[in-house]
Design a protein that fits this description.
- By secondary structure, the protein is of the alpha/beta class.
- The protein has two domains: 144 residues, Rossmann fold (3-Layer(aba) Sandwich); 69 residues, Orthogonal Bundle (DNA polymerase, domain 1), CATH 1.10.150.240.
- The protein is 42% helix and 10% strand.
- It contains ten helices and six strands, in the order βαααααβαβαβαβαβα.
- A six-stranded parallel β-sheet has the order 3-2-1-4-5-6, with helices on both faces.
- Strand 5, helix 9 and strand 6 form a beta-alpha-beta unit.
- Helix 3 crosses helix 4.
- The longest helix is centred in the middle third of the chain and has 17 residues.
């Protein structure tokens, strides 16, 4: 008697925002550099870049600790506030990464559910989503919706719940090792994009199943991860 094969569940996508859908990583880095300098700590940009993808509070704590500096909680809070101010001053320079809008529209047209998971605050996430020029505001979660940001899996878990998707059916797309680690802990398939500045090797070491250049490259390669539009 032939065995009946289980029908595979439909996939769902969980997208990071900064560096994955929007070309905003380096604007964040320089905004943080200015903010840290104003509270008395001069840092090279590479130190900051390695932590982009974490929540602002966690990033500030880790970067300062790695640099061997000491700041009070009030100074850390001030640095986070200044980062937000300086980043928004340069928001006009932030644009969607190649193919981001086309990828999202194609998924929607094909009925493939997707959601955005941003480590930023709500106002930042909303301003970024506007940059994508989508027909309607998509589902998203941000730092206000969770207690712990990436690499904790809580944000990706909340995102899956937002679209009523099983984590086992979700493909998490991100540009940072923190995205890939969070995806693994959430039991999602992690797909990396190098357009945020991490190398393919770094993303693969953090358990990315596949790595692509940018959203356009991912769109052209969806069949490689079992998604047929």
């Amino acid at each position: 008697m032939a065995r009946r094969l289980a029908t595979p569940a439909d996939p769902a996508f969980v997208f990071d925002l900064d560096g994955t859908l929007l070309d905003s990583v380096y604007q964040h880095v320089t905004a943080w550099q200015r903010a840290f300098a104003e509270v008395g700590v001069d840092l090279a940009v590479w130190r900051i870049h390695r932590r982009i993808g974490m929540s602002g509070g966690l990033l500030a704590q880790r970067v300062i600790k790695e640099a061997g500096a000491e700041l009070s909680q009030a100074q850390l809070d001030k640095a986070e506030e200044l980062h937000g101010r300086y980043y928004f001053e340069g928001l006009d320079w932030v644009q969607p990464l190649p193919g981001a809008r086309a990828l999202l529209l194609a998924l929607s047209e094909a009925g493939v559910p997707w959601v955005i998971a941003s480590s930023g605050k709500a106002d930042e996430a909303e301003a970024h989503i506007e940059k994508l020029d989508l027909p309607r505001t998509p589902p998203y979660v941000c730092s206000a919706d969770v207690d712990n940001a990436k690499p904790n899996p809580e944000m990706f878990l909340a995102a899956a719940e937002k679209i009523d998707a099983s984590v086992l059916d979700c493909i998490a797309v991100g540009d940072a090792v923190w995205d890939m680690l969070a995806a693994r802990r959430a039991r999602m398939l992690g797909v990396g994009l190098v357009c945020g500045g991490y190398s393919a090797g770094e993303l693969q070491q953090a358990h990315a199943f596949r790595v692509y250049l940018d959203p356009a490259d991912l769109h052209a390669s969806l069949d490689e991860i079992g998604v047929m539009l």
